[in-house]
Amino acid sequence: MKKNKYLIILVITVLGIFIGGLIYYGTYQSQQNAKYFDLSSKCMKDAKSFFNEKYPDIKSPGSQIDGAISFADYQNHYNKLFNKCYILITIRIDMGHVHVKNIELYDVDDRALIGKLDIYGQDQKKIFCKITGKECHSLDDFITGIEPYIENKIDL
């Protein structure tokens, strides 16, 4: 009988520890999600400011623009692993026979260019591509090179 009493106390203690751990984990996850949301929101604001500083003449990103730049837009990306904010800027220039698509990835906090891709011509076969100072040779190379910085799927 005494043995069963100790077994019941042990089971109750283990269950208490397990339930306490679950409660702690749930609280910890909630705090981490709130922190991520705050940092992601800050990244969104900082990326918008970065874009507006870099392209002050573009009043509404994502829309058609008069003049040489026919389209300009950006995507902000907060990377949890690096605890960094990145911005992917896309500019399309169409002037007669000149067609250029320019894509740049910046570290918003450091204002540092990480990668740049220029695609020239109507056939989009001429490419200039660099990531962290190293040459790349295709759109696929560029996407692969910037994947460590961008945690979610990108649309180029």
What report would you give on this structure?
There is one protein chain. With about 160 residues, this protein is an alpha+beta fold. It has one domain. It is about 40% helix and about 30% strand. The chain contains 2 helices and 6 strands. It has helices at about 1-55, 140-145; strands at about 70-80, 85-95, 100-105, 110-120, 125-130, 135. Strands 1-2-3-4-5-6 form a 6-stranded antiparallel β-sheet, sandwiched between helices.
List the helices and strands and how they pair.
Elements: H1 2-54, E1 69-79, E2 84-95, E3 98-107, E4 112-120, E5 126-131, E6 134-135, H2 139-146
Antiparallel strand pairs: 1-2, 2-3, 3-4, 4-5, 5-6
Entry keywords:
alpha+beta, 2 helices, elongated
Proportion in helices: 25-40%
- C-alpha termini separation: 71 Å
Number of domains: 1
Task: Give the ordered list of helices and strands.
Answer: HEEEEEEH
Number of helices: 2
- Rg on CA atoms, Å: 25 Å
User: How much is the average pLDDT?
Assistant: 80
Outline the low-pLDDT stretches: none
Describe the sheet with the most strands: 6 strands, antiparallel
- Give the DSSP E fraction (strand runs of 2 or more residues): 25-35%
